[in-house]
């Protein structure tokens, strides 16, 4: 087990406030212990202008319309893992006790050369605009006073927490397989109740399992802030992160922050059904934007906005919800040029963007009939490929282009670590994140302490930023294999004269278009009726797929085409192949083939 | 480590659906293994009409106005731990795989002789009324079909979860101290990734860490349902539980379910500040009801409702939010008679009740000057006192009196296990719980899987219902000691001629009334100004207390009295005494004594 940086006390991190029981002062005056972190691959300070978000080696990004990253092309230098570890060493050991206040500014690199985000007051709902800070949490400012005894907050005493320690068996980077984890190469991690007081860790059960701040612990805030800087490096100064209880919750909070009843929200014409179901009861109308193989079409977005008649349709939509990578349900991935065009339309019409990116790191190499080289080399690549090549090959996020601070990016561990952590994070401008936290304080109060301390132990102490990126490299290799299995099965078993598809470039979903015009019952039967017929035949034959109509942004409009959603995330390769075979049989039967 | 019941497959529990990857069918056909659970104390089937919720031995409940429990007096027989364990053995091993559907009806005892709850359609907000089930979760009904392969839901494969096992060091009942836990008496628990497939447990990491149902796992739903039946035994048939991400979130959801902008919600005139802050931004007005030493006054509630002028003040409040035990901030505890009276007012005016009970189990024996017998005997009592005496001594909950199904009770582990679990549960009628779950599906999606599987391992497998009740008995003994310390310090160090209080009978808070009329600056200075002066002197002298005005339900009205809230939950006994000494000095200084 690798230990976290343990260095001199001092720097901005120690500004974190303590809300609770005064712990021994010795803790705050821990003697200097400088041990540099073992980073598997030493990364030089980068001056390569297109280091991140540049074209990938195999031209995949080019196929998706990658252009040169403008901000980086301007000559600014992006942060490296080494920069971050240097910064940590300089800041000194993180001292953040029970319910300590923290924010991303404590952990970010210099942002002096970046502009500040715009203000979004005119976008805020009345509900969000009037939120005040929690009076009890505000009183915590007095806890800075040396020697003060708090009879203020009703935080239970850790003595009564029935957990003395928590241990984990996890993979050691870069050998991530279950077999390696079970074998001698696996790592055993232990989290004690009082590890911080004992000076053996920066986070422990006594802190994680007590009340905390709604935006999450300082320990995990540092980690997600650094990770976001590595991956997205937002081009404005006052960006911040806040932990969430997952992106579904983040979306609901964001809609309540930005929309009032009667407002419209733009999204892909086929969109995540839960997102659509979230908006409806809030009285928020979902407005579909046309798509192609790269997802949302900026021209269509422009057309919707330009043609909006406020006198008949109410306020012009001022929010876009989009899943740029491996979109659910279509699997479509926006290339860089597409993203920049969408961002420009948003600027032109003053649209705020909710960027939902659970599948961002599941960007894959292009599918090659009969199996790509990634299939064989995934694990090897994850172990040996420089992490910067991985990061450099990813399509830039909308957040990374966001000069205005008009993007709220939603990140999630659900698809890349475990869904059950119910822990993710949002990144946006200081104003928007502050409003988000005010809301979280009076609803979910932030993620589980178990989830926070366990992920911190794994991601920060055990793997570090590099190990986590290697984990992601390995994972996308695994999903690439799975994608290739389902695509191979589709080629073999589906009737190509009526079923068509694009190979997914990211994510977990494969979207199949079935040509309703060639169905013998069309137009006597509607698309929805034919879709239902095929779905029912699928169930009878023993395969469950998603009906395309479930995902229509505008449920009241009749669909123009017929689709089915399949996932390659869950079933075994054998079952996946069998399932596609059954789907093919169901379609043939319905079409009388 | 004690193992859970492992018995024949069958019964209602196996009706739980599977939403995800078909696991080996062998799992569903596990051979019969009947091992009865070791219950430390064998509890006979009770026919004592006032077995639960009867008067406690020392007359404490009487002092709080306990009357004979009507339902039990009617001759019905309440459930015992033994009944529950018998029921589990008959139902057979719980088979609930990834994202299995479950509800309390699968785990409750017979309810045939109970009426059904009333319908609450007229109480639901437009937002809540229109919620539809998640289309993707509804599709899960097809997963019952044998042999069906799902390409439906995008649930990741557990193979990619980087947690092979999770282990815990916890106290073994009834030796709950930290020292005993660290010593040879402590228990080591282990949760493997595939314990269920291996047949060694009913819950494991592969299930807990995947997506689940928003109302929580079947495993924890069973536990909270049984616990609620043991403690509250709601007197109507169709009650159900749903897990929550904590009671703050549950309150916010409940307000959104029941209220529209402009509505008023009744609560104690001094109330939990976070609750007040939750209501405000929703446009929900908080209406204070007068209190005495037992908390909310039913006569005042009647007066407010009877005198409500809908033409000038809008819709008459139809929701009451109350903390019956150890109310925050006053520490007041409603006796049984008080609760019944409040319930009757609610029936008369058709008011729906939100019963927030984080401190329910921290009901204490009466304070005796110089230390009660509990101070010495707490741990001993927790080890030897029959758990039924403990349950029988608790004041009945509003839920236990709720013949209409008009109560939504909010339970929490925050004050009695760990706040960081962000896990609690609500209990209410099937209709209300269904609406609650529909909301949770599109916001928080239920609690962390880490929290669920860890609490299940501790509470269900390790401690069982009896061990958990013993834990609670021990804990209230600990809080009794702490309460007695602060009360002793108050007697010693506060100027009794201007400061007065009642000894708290439950919870974590001690509420001090300071007589503003005797302040030399009154009435030249307002109560708020004098309160501020004392607060600032406290900070200067090194003690943080809560200002009474922070907790006023109706912030815009001038207070009639002056209060300060202190907590005995967190500081060490020595610091607590010192802090009260400083508070006394600050008050004397302000009063020029």
From TrEMBL, chains A, B:
Which EC class is the enzyme in? transferase
Entry GO CC? cytoplasm
GO terms under biological process? aromatic amino acid family catabolic process; lysine biosynthetic process via aminoadipic acid; tyrosine biosynthetic process
- Pfam families assigned: Aminotran_1_2
Question: Any idea which UniProt keywords this protein has?
Answer: Aminotransferase, Cytoplasm, Pyridoxal phosphate, Transferase
Task: Name the domain of life.
Answer: Eukaryota
The family classification in the record reads:
Belongs to the class-I pyridoxal-phosphate-dependent aminotransferase family.
Protein name from the UniProt record: aromatic-amino-acid transaminase
Species name: Lasiosphaeria hispida
């Amino acid at each position: 087990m690798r230990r976290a940086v343990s260095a001199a006390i001092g720097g901005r991190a120690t500004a974190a406030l303590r809300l609770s029981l005064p712990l021994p002062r010795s803790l705050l005056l821990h003697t200097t212990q400088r041990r540099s972190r073992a980073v598997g691959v030493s990364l030089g300070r980068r001056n390569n202008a297109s280091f991140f978000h540049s074209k990938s080696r195999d031209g995949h990004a080019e196929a998706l319309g990658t252009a040169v990253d403008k901000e980086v092309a301007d000559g600014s230098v992006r942060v490296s893992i080494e920069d971050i570890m240097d910064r940590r060493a300089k800041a000194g050991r993180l001292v953040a006790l029970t319910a300590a206040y923290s924010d991303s500014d404590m952990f970010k690199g210099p942002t002096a050369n970046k502009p500040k985000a715009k203000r979004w007051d005119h976008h805020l709902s009345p509900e969000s605009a009037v939120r005040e800070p929690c009076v009890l949490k505000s009183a915590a400012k007095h806890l800075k006073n040396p020697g003060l005894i708090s009879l203020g907050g009703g935080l239970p005493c850790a003595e009564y927490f029935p957990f003395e320690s928590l241990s984990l068996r996890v993979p050691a980077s870069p050998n991530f397989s279950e077999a390696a984890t079970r074998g001698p190469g696996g790592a055993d991690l232990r989290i004690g109740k009082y590890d911080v007081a004992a000076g053996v860790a920066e986070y422990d059960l006594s802190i994680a399992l007590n009340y905390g701040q709604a935006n999450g612990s300082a320990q995990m805030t540092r980690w997600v802030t650094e990770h976001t800087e590595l991956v997205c490096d937002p081009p404005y100064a006052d960006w911040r992160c806040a932990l969430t209880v997952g992106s579904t919750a983040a979306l609901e909070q964001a809609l309540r922050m930005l929309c009032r009843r009667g407002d419209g929200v733009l999204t892909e014409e086929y969109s995540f059904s839960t997102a659509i179901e979230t908006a409806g009861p809030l009285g928020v109308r979902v407005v579909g934007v046309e798509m192609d193989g790269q997802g949302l079409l900026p021209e269509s977005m422009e057309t919707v906005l330009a043609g909006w008649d406020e006198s008949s349709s109410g306020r012009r939509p001022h929010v876009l919800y989009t899943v740029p990578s491996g979109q659910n349900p279509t699997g479509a991935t926006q290339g860089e040029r597409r993203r920049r065009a969408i961002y420009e339309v948003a600027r032109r019409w003053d649209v705020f963007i909710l960027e939902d990116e659970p599948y961002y790191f599941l960007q894959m190499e292009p599918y090659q009939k009969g199996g790509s080289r990634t299939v064989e080399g995934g694990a090897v690549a994850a172990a040996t490929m420089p992490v910067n090549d991985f990061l450099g090959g990813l399509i830039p996020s909308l957040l990374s282009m966001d000069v205005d601070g008009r993007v709220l990016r939603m990140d999630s561990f659900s698809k890349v670590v475990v869904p059950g952590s119910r822990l993710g994070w949002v990144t946006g401008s200081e104003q928007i994140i502050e409003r988000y936290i005010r809301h979280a304080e009076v609803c979910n109060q932030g993620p589980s302490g178990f989830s926070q301390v366990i992920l911190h132990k794994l991601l920060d102490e055990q793997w570090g930023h590099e190990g986590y990126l290697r984990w992601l490299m390995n994972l996308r290799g695994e999903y690439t294999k799975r994608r290739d299995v389902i695509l191979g099965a589709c080629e073999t078993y589906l009737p190509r004269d009526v079923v068509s598809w694009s190979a997914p470039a990211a994510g977990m979903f494969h979207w199949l278009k079935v040509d309703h015009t060639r169905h013998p019952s069309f137009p006597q039967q509607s698309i929805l009726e034919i879709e239902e017929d095929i779905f029912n035949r699928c169930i009878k034959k023993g395969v469950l797929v998603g009906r395309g109509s479930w995902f229509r942004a505008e449920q009241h409009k009749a669909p123009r085409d017929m689709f089915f959603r399949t996932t390659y995330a869950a079933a075994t390769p054998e079952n996946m192949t069998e399932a596609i075979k059954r789907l093919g049989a169901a379609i043939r039967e319905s079409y009388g083939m």
